Amino acid sequence: MLAPVLKSVGCISLACSFIFSAVAQADVSVKIHDDRPGATINKNIYGQFAEHLGRGIYEGIWVGPDSKIPNTRGFRNDVIAALKELRVPLIRWPGGCFADEYHWRNGIGPREKRAVTVNTSWGGVTDNNAFGTHEFFELAEMLGAEVYINGNLGTGTPQEMAEWLEYMTSPSDSTLANLRRQNGRQEPWKVHYFAIGNETWGCGGNMTPEYYANLYKHYATFLKTPEDNRPELIASGGYEHLTEWTETLMKNVQPNWSLRMNGIGHHYYTLPLSDWEKKGRAIQFPEKEWLMTFTRTLKIEDYIKANTEIMDKYDPEKKVGFYVDEWGTWYDTEEGDNPGFLHQQNTIRDALVAALNLNIFHKYADRVRMTNIAQMVNVLQAMILTDGEKMLLTPTYHVFKMYIPFQQATYLPLDIKGNREYKLGDHSAPQVSASAAKTTDGKVVLALTNIHPTSKIDITLDGNWKRADGQILTAKNMDSHNTFDKKNEVAPKAFSAQKKGKQFTVTVPAKSVVVVELK
Ligand code: AHR
Fold first, then answer.
1. Which of 22, 177, 250, 407 is 20 to 30 A from 344, alpha carbon to alpha carbon?
2. How many domains does the chain have?
3. What is the DSSP string of 188-233?
4. Distance from residue 409's CA to the centre of ligand 1 (Å)
5. In a mutational test of the pocket of ligand 1, which residue from 49, 51, 343, 378 has the highest number of ligand atoms less than 8 Å from its CB?
6. One domain for residues 124 and 267
7. pLDDT by residue (tens digit) across 439-473?
């Protein structure tokens, strides 16, 4: 078999452009069914999670108005500018485990008078509550993002939860609405999503599904907002392979539509070694862990299928969403890092994990209408890392940016024929993953990933396509990453391919994500 010829047509700083000629018989082919459009890929699939955890909120987003780090009313300028570029559609706050000990009244009013509390979930550090409800909404407004607030079920009461919603959404002359006005916000805010508890099977209270289903009904009964400002209510669901949370909630809560269970939140993290005691390192890992990271990531498709099949049984109209409201990689913390802060490096491997997950979410877009990567800054699979005044964009950030055209696009099913298995020892995973969609302005966009660490792959595009133009994210090593000294070690470059002869072959280099518009 002939190898395709790669001709570089010049590099200007980071923007290299490649033309791939079709001179080889490609071994994998992709056929996009643009005549069978599927569901809309809700932009909120690209949601992000921002918890009071480590340096996620404090330092990562909020430095306070008196900081030497350049900021606007306390929000660091560099991070806000980078997030604006990313068109973040949705932010989930204040946790996570943190949410079930968060008492919202601690985070309103003059900052110097706010209570100092202990973050018992994450490192036992103190939180001066400088970032509270008003600051969160200001962040969302700066980014043009919708908001997802997680209520405190674990240590709060139905009254506290209901009053938080009243504070945020009431247009009335009530004491709480006037307190909001006194604290600087005249008009009610729009709350798009509101969760009743988090991980109620674990840090949120170690409950059984049946016990939680009753609590959900109890709390939801009292969550009253104006008719035109009703958030989607999210029930705390299961994790990984579990289906009993979905089954119990669909059976016991969903039929009572007045309780408005609009979505079930499910959590799934990629731990390369599938072991919470020894998860695997973020950098300097062996090839076996590289591959195991992908096999573990890809399992999410089975878990989505199993849960959504149950939902289809109770709710064939798909009124209730299956929301993966926490996902991403989770590695061992490095020596010297506070283990309670969940700080980790982010490599080309994380970029590929992000692309694989997003491709799967697109496929189930009819039910998976919202997800949140964990987390936004400095925590787990972050978009951005900071160190004091320094900031860098991670490979995951770049994938999210390359995938922007998929937000609100129409899913287009595709077939991958002849996909190769990348194998090592007992582990194996399909080498190519792909996703296609028709964008809101009528363009066809295609994402292709090659997870093989050393072999490129030739992919034939079936159909009438003549050109593919977009970007590629690739790297030299399996753990290539950006540092504060080398911020562009892993950064997107221009990518083009065009039909030559009878076939249209795109060569996707080892360890890369390509997103192109097809013409
Ligand atoms: O994202 C970190 C933690 O992971 C969240 O607080 C919790 O919900 C999950 O276990």
1. 407
2. 2
3. PPP--EEEE-S-TTTTTT---HHHHHHHHHHHHHT----GGGPPEE
4. 29
5. 51
6. yes
7. 999 999 999 999 999 999 999 999 999 999 999 99
